[in-house]
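Exercise 3.2. Students should predict the tertiary structure of the chain below and write it as structure tokens, then compare their answer with the key that follows.

Predict this chain's 3D structure.
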Amino acid sequence: MNRLHFIVIGKNDSIVRTLVRVISAKEDWTAFGCRETSELYQHLQEVPTAIILLSSGLDAATENEIMIEAVRITPTVKVIVHYGGGSGLLYNEVQMALSEKL
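Answer key:
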């Protein structure tokens, strides 16, 4: 299986840290957490990334900007809006995103 790298962005540091921990606990998954879009775009340019997870605290304009800019930088990246619901929901959201065609 290929290693999947995630970027988690959100305004609540505790939630971002928790998501990074949950993601990184899964074999072959790694994650980077950030609060600012500038950090996200820089990391996206430096590290091959499969999924961007939008966490709580981002406004709609920022979410839309990320969806457009992230795909411009990495056309194959999947963007998932995730506001909670436990690790089971997260894993299902990821599997669903990965199964979708570009």
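Discussion points: The two ends are 20 Å apart (CA to CA). The first helix runs from residue 13 to 25.
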